[in-house]
Amino acid sequence: MWVVLLEDGIEFYKKKSDNSPKGMIPLKGSTLTSPCQDFGKRMCFDFQFVFKITTTKQQDHFFQAAFLEERDAWVRDIKKGIKCIEGGQKFARKSTRRSIRLPETIDLGALYLSMKDTEKGIKELNLEKDKKIFNHCFTGNCVIDWLVSNQSVRNRQEGLMIASSLLNEGYLQPAGDMSKSAVDGTAENPFLDNPDAFYYFPDSGFFCEENSSDDDVILKEEFRGVIIKQGCLLKQGHRRKNWKVRKFILREDPAYLHYYDPAGAEDPLGAIHLRGCVVTSVESNSNGRKSEEENLFEIITADEVHYFLQAASPKERTEWIKAIQVASRTGK
Questions:
Q1: Where's the DEP domain (predicted)?
Q2: pLDDT digits (tens, 9 = 90+) for 119-162
């Protein structure tokens, strides 16, 4: 469906070119749930991309985005719309391009790739604030400095508009209380041109850690590896043997597979040290039945700890197995 967020509701169309919507969901008095796990258990593997809107009449409407950043962008704007209605304010953002009058010549996707260029792009740093270390991120004023110096914009005010567009479309993510508060608020520009406002690229491997222990040095070592693959998989728990969706980030040299809460938590829930591990597909379950359609695979670490994971398709399972095998041979 083609979905349009209005001041007081959400319209959805069968096609983008349609003139009349198929329906409309009022936002006044509605509540939003994200991610929506009960939907995932019944219908959809990728429930971490699903959010639910419940109207005042207790009608549930489920939406699934294509990826995590897109879901977060929709959830952020819908919450902002509901908040504006409750406070008697006007929420005018129907689309990024229309709301800030973004020139049609601006290609946000191409600009994002230029910003990520390892030589000429924005430098990712490890920044410290409030006894926390934010890894693989950068400040708001650095983004505006880069846009101006690369002649992508004419001045800082225009740079603020473009940076807000990148943030709204999920090309940039807020890190830390200051930048997150700006995004959740109702200000005209959710992006801050400020050295104390932190941001990161969604696929950069960003993580935040407390700077209060000697263990930080050991923890940092795990995250120094280059990211070679990331995505969501089902993981079986060791104690209860239940299955939960986790976001996995695979790094090599050192070879680690970190897994996170897919709702967007900054800190990993755990890590699998891959050096010397064995990874194979699992063709039968505990009952001895064939389970090829379940796309299961197993990682056995050098310490003989077993991890059972499930991919969304046979192709994805094969890709993960090959990537983990490469990391386990090359990483330390």
A1: 118-203
A2: 999 999 988 887 788 888 999 999 999 999 998 888 998 899 89
The domain made up of 215-330 has a fold known as PH-domain like (2.30.29)
Q: Is the pLDDT of residue 15 over 50?
A: yes
CA 240 from chain center: how many Å?
Answer: 27
For 293, phi then psi, to 5°, come to: -70, -15
Bridge partners of residue 52, in order along the sequence: 33, 62
**Is 215-330 in the same CATH topology as 108-209?**
no
* Residue 37: pLDDT band with limits 50, 70, 90: low
Q: How far apart are CA 76 and CA 202, in angstroms?
A: 16
Domain spans of the chain, in order of start: 2-87, 108-209, 215-330
CATH topology of domain 2-87: PH-domain like (2.30.29)
Q: Tens digit of pLDDT for each residue in 75-128?
A: 888 988 898 888 887 665 544 434 445 566 778 888 999 999 989 999 999 888
CATH 1.10.3370.10, applies to 108-209 = no
Q: 286 with 188: CB under 8 angstroms? A: no
Q: How confident is the model at residue 10 (pLDDT cuts 50, 70, 90)?
A: very high
Tokens of 316: 């994805």
For residue 228, give the nearest of 199, 248, 202 by alpha carbon. 248
